């Protein structure tokens, strides 16, 4: 009786693993097809110009706002785009990289460079 019960449990476990594997592969294939069939529109065509509006819950003086706006204006289009996607759209570095078409490491480096550039500009103006 114990051998029969053990055999049933092993069959059930094997069937369960088979179903999990089938579902995993089906979902993987579905998302591959979805990604393959999706149409990517270049960012330049979607957003002809990025205007970063600064909204904050803390009090900011007009002078600080002007300095920050001036610092943002010194950034290139691609730098503004990375800032916008990261801090205003709350996208991850990986999502930004896929959207722009570069590696995640390139976005991380670009983001760090932009923040250093803004920090240096703000320190000079202070």
From TrEMBL:
Domain of life from the UniProt record: Bacteria
Pfam family for this entry, one: Sigma70_r4
Database matches in InterPro entries: RNA_pol_sigma-70_dom, RNA_pol_sigma70_r4, RNA_pol_sigma_r3/r4-like
Residues annotated as domain RNA polymerase sigma-70 region: 71-119
SUPFAM superfamilies, per the entry: Sigma3 and sigma4 domains of RNA polymerase sigma factors
NCBIfam families in the record: sigma70-ECF
The protein's name: Sigma-70 family RNA polymerase sigma factor
């Amino acid at each position: 009786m114990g051998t029969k019960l053990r055999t049933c449990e092993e069959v059930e476990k094997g069937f369960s693993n088979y179903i999990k594997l089938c579902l995993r592969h089906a979902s993987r294939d579905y998302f591959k097809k979805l990604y393959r069939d999706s149409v990517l529109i270049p960012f330049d065509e979607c957003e002809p110009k990025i205007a970063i509006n600064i909204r904050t819950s803390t009090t900011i003086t007009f002078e600080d706002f002007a300095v920050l706006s001036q610092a943002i204006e010194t950034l290139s289009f691609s730098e503004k785009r990375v800032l916008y996607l990261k801090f205003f759209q709350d996208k991850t570095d990986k999502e930004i990289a896929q959207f722009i078409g570069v590696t995640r490491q390139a976005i991380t480096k670009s983001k760090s460079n932009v923040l250093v550039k803004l920090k240096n500009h703000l320190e000079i103006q202070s």
